[in-house]
Design goal:
single chain; 97 residues; alpha+beta; 4-stranded antiparallel β-sheet; globular
Length: 97
């Protein structure tokens, strides 16, 4: 399986949002962490992450299929912050992330 990252654009927001909800919903159901769980965020939050000047969302593609995303922020010149990162449940435990 070929896995690669590609910078997300506004046109990817709905697809990324849908995958984010699918990936995090089991945890939201289990822990009821409504204030912090990404499954409870809005699509506007996804758009904000896509358009951050100090980082952005990257699509995770497996064999050219969108299977997840990762948000990477650049802090100073050499530090990075990853949050969130998620994979569709059907693609989890396959070594993609």
């Amino acid at each position: 399986m070929e896995v690669r990252l590609k910078r997300a654009t506004d046109n990817d927001a709905q697809s990324i949002f849908d995958i984010q909800v699918k990936a995090f919903m089991p945890l939201l159901d289990k822990y009821k962490d409504y204030d912090t769980n990404p499954a409870n965020e809005t699509i506007d939050r996804v758009l904000t992450r896509i358009n951050r000047p100090d980082g952005g969302f990257y699509k995770i593609l497996a064999d050219n299929k969108l299977v997840g995303a990762i948000c990477v922020l650049w802090i100073e010149d050499v530090h990075f912050w990853i949050s969130p990162m998620f994979i569709l449940p059907t693609y989890q435990r396959k070594g993609i992330a």
